[in-house]
């Protein structure tokens, strides 16, 4: 869909004392100006695009960020850097707003950790690829979107917007026929647009997928010259205005700039695993998660007989 600079709007709202929140696509923010730079107070969205399959719509972990002044209103827990009794640098739970830690009436979130695995996947995806790898992925997604747009426009197809990151709104004359043709190719197009269909590309999109989309939208088998379209886009693409390109660095912490091979990543994850306190190392405190543990004896086939 179309890209917008919301700086003026956010400044107007701020002048009236309004706290603003922005829903954003996490992959697009690798290339696009951050909502914080535009003046947003809170930014949130889905982290699905960082290594988590679509899974027919979920589940996916969210990401949530806010300005420092609002940190005490954030749900969940915030981990801070501290020192232990021996003076060593340590990580500790700096703020606890879950009902298991403070009085329920003061809590900002309940006890729910069911999406921590998904959050870990997204986090390790960022660790593995780092800022360079993520930029390469985001640029490829945008480049393929540019190629698709250029090919459609070359064939006289109208696009509803002049700017985009990964999503095109394509105007079609016979929408039911286009959707039927798409389904015959196993392609799911966005259908809730008047006189148009929506197409979103992602990290898994291939050149073959582009050719399939051309065939669907042009109602015929085409032999588009992808390389020629690519050269055209490289020379004259304006789908992301210069004013909306990201100017600030991303993922500057060393953890996002150190583990970019399989062995490096595997060893890093193993070091983290060894720091975990589990039953194979020691007794662990009783808690809701501990109570879900099954005894080894329960795996005997006639245990419940």
CATH topology group of the domain at 131-244: Aspartate Aminotransferase, domain 1
CATH hierarchy, class of the domain at 131-244: Alpha Beta
Overall geometric form: globular
Strand content: 5-15%
Number of helical runs?
A: 7
Distance between the termini: 59 Å
The CATH superfamily of the domain at 131-244 is identified as Aspartate Aminotransferase, domain 1
Helix content: 25-40%
Helix vs. strand class: alpha+beta
How many beta-strand elements? 8
SSE series: HEHEEEEHEHEEHHH
Low-confidence stretches: none
List the strand order in the largest sheet: 1-2-3
Question: Overall pLDDT, averaged?
Answer: 89
Overall CATH architecture of the domain at 131-244: Alpha-Beta Complex
Characterize the largest beta sheet: strand count, sense, and whether it forms a barrel.
3 strands, mixed
Cα-based radius of gyration, to the nearest Å: 24 Å
GO molecular function: glycine binding; glycine dehydrogenase (decarboxylating) activity; pyridoxal phosphate binding
InterPro entries: GDC-P_N, GDC_P, PyrdxlP-dep_Trfase, PyrdxlP-dep_Trfase_major, PyrdxlP-dep_Trfase_small
GO biological process, one term: glycine decarboxylation via glycine cleavage system
Domain Glycine cleavage system P-protein N-terminal: 3-217
Quick structural gist:
The protein has helices spanning 7-15, 35-38, 116-154, 175-184, 207-218, 226-236, 262-274; strands spanning 21-23, 42-46, 62-66, 77-83, 89-96, 167-171, 190-193, 196-200.
């Amino acid at each position: 869909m179309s890209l917008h600079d919301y700086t003026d709007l956010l400044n107007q709202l701020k002048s009236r004392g309004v706290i603003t929140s922005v829903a954003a696509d996490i992959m697009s923010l690798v290339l696009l100006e951050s909502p914080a730079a535009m003046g947003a107070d809170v930014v949130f969205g889905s982290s699905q695009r960082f290594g988590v399959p679509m899974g027919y719509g979920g589940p996916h972990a969210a990401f949530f960020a806010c300005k420092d002044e609002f940190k005490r209103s954030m749900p969940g827990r915030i981990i801070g850097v501290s020192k232990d009794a021996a003076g060593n640098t340590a990580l500790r739970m700096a703020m606890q707003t879950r009902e298991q830690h403070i009085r329920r009436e003061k809590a900002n979130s309940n006890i729910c950790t069911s999406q921590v695995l998904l959050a870990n996947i997204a986090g390790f995806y960022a660790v593995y690829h780092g800022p360079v790898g993520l930029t390469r992925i985001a640029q490829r997604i945008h480049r393929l979107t540019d190629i698709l747009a250029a090919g459609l426009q070359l064939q006289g197809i109208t696009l509803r917007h002049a700017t985009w990151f990964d999503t095109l709104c394509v105007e079609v004359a016979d929408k039911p026929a286009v959707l039927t043709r798409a389904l015959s190719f196993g392609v799911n197009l966005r259908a809730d647009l008047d006189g148009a269909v929506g197409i979103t590309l992602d990290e898994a999109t291939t050149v073959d997928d582009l050719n399939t989309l051309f065939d669907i939208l042009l109602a015929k088998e085409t032999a588009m010259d992808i390389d020629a379209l690519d050269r055209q886009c490289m020379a004259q693409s304006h789908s992301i205005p210069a004013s909306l390109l990201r100017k600030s660095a991303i993922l500057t912490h060393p953890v996002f700039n150190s583990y970019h091979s399989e062995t490096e990543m595997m060893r890093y994850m193993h070091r983290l695993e060894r720091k975990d306190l589990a039953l194979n190392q020691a007794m662990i405190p009783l808690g809701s998660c501990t109570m879900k543990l099954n005894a080894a004896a329960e795996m005997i086939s006639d245990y419940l007989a």
